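Team,

Forwarding the record for the chain on the shared tracking sheet. I've put the sequence and predicted structure together so nobody has to dig through attachments.
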Amino acid sequence: MAKREKNKSKRHRSSNNTNQWGFENNPYQFVPHDKNCSELKSEAPSLAKFSGLSGYLVCEITTLTPLFIGGKRHEGEAPKKIDFFEINGKPAIPGSSIRGMLRSVLEAATGSCFSVFDESPLHYRDIKAKVIAGEILELPTDAKPGKIRAMKRAWIAIPGEGGEQVLEIINKNNNKMHTIKFIPSGKQNGDIIWTEIEEIEKYKTSRKAPIIGPFYLVKNYATSSISASGWYEGKLKITGKTIPMKKRERVFFPLDSKEIYYFTKKEVEDYQRIVEEQLEFPQNRNRNFMKSPPRKPLKKGMLIYFQEGKTDDNGDKWAHKISYVEVPRVYYDTSRGDLIKEMGLQKCETLEFLCPVCRLFGFTGEKQALRSRIQISDAIHTEGAGPEKDYWAIKLLGTPHPTSCNIYLKDPTDKDVVRNYDGIKLDNKGNPEDPKNKDGTKNIKWKGPVEIRGRKFYFHHPNQNKLYYCVPTNYREQEEMRSQVRPVLDGNVFEFRIDFQNLAQEELGMLIWGLELHGNLHHKLGMGKPIGFGSIRIEIIEAQVENDLTSKYIAFEQMKNKNGGSTKNIFNKFEYLNSFLVWIKEKTGKEFLNLNNVEVLSKILDINEGNTSRKYPTEKGFEFYRNLKGKPFPNPLDK
């Protein structure tokens, strides 16, 4: 049984290198895929008999910066307070967290599949969508489609929003001023009013910018029936105060032609899924988003927006992309799963063709599965002061925004072009370009290739004092979105064990590399990675390796009956690491450390690359990223 001498924890300080990359404040980068790694896929190992290497590794985790693993939550408080995770009263790290961290690093290093990945399509705000107002007449069933009556919409003012709203209408001969009528007192969403409508082609904003229509404005209204020419029976559509500067609501009124559109059950399902996902957005839950009125499932009589689909052979018109009455949210036609499949990185499904990590960690497909050949225990605290006594009010942490196409996607043929998931080129404001140029000619760059940029990893930060990680004590904004936590500081030690069975020498070498990495590379674990939490060092401190389990049983009988010797090997991790490196070169034709994905991963996980400037913008972070939506997110680490 070989045991390494323990290296006591030392505080790691980062070099003073200044980050000169684009988006230089961003705390993460993406590890790209090296296509050479596709050669590493092979058939699943046989688990019908004992073969190869079995045994265990005992490892230590030493914290290099504050680390926080969420445990008990104190509900009903703002900001919310969370304790460090415990097992039987002792600070601990769940084995599942270690397993996820280890698997992510090995997947990135070996170009393995995206085993944990939401492959569903995303939805986005389509500000250029040509929407049609409508009223649901019938919902679809298995036997027949639903029906929508096409309508028009007119603006009506919200009372109490800065007095009368006056628009400067642009006419051919002379401009005129128009005052928009207020919603009648006591009227609510869905109520019927009679309105006199005025159609305009253009108007000027308060900044004198011309806006092209046509638009309809409520010129006059009545609460009882008026049959005069130019008056319509309309329905109020009140969507609520969803944006701070909102000044107007809408009245839906019927078209003279009574156009009917048909729609399918799929459109209903897509509408409902988008509404549910919007309600799940953390920023929407915390801001009481869509509080009045509530968004309900589609039903007869509901006022909606939709886009015009195809006209069938019978001349019937079909609606698609039904949305709530606002700038519509619609699904991309191409899902994230589609893009991953095009790159050959979709989740493993068959035993005949597995990536290296699924061979080791196991997988579950729709029809086939493979159990893991490694088991990782929880890591229990063994050295150090443990969690802080006081709660730290840490800086606000964001959530991933995969619809930021300039960050999460790339055009593999042109790094200066930003495309969305459907491959449509985005302009400098992040909006889809038109398929035709202004002169009517085809926009040759309108649609093109697009790929997932890679796997996200966070840079290390230098270990700082408490003020670096926490918000100022007098900061009271967004308290409901922040957290107070009790982290452990640098120098705390946790111990865990990995048991393994039936590994080839190169697989044990891959596991060892994934744990200890190389050079100045270290893992990131737990909560708060963007602000510098979670830098850890892993060391193997004890190991036992058996050639196969049958020899272990033979050795046990010999020791019992004849006091015979053991067949345990002296643990030489470099022998197994070398087997892994040789295997990689034989399969890919490249040295492991020269693979593009490994080069990029190494630069991200190198603790000496850490820099305190790597953080989200401290002020107006949302505006910062929004203003860069049309700018490509550069990755100078990627060749």
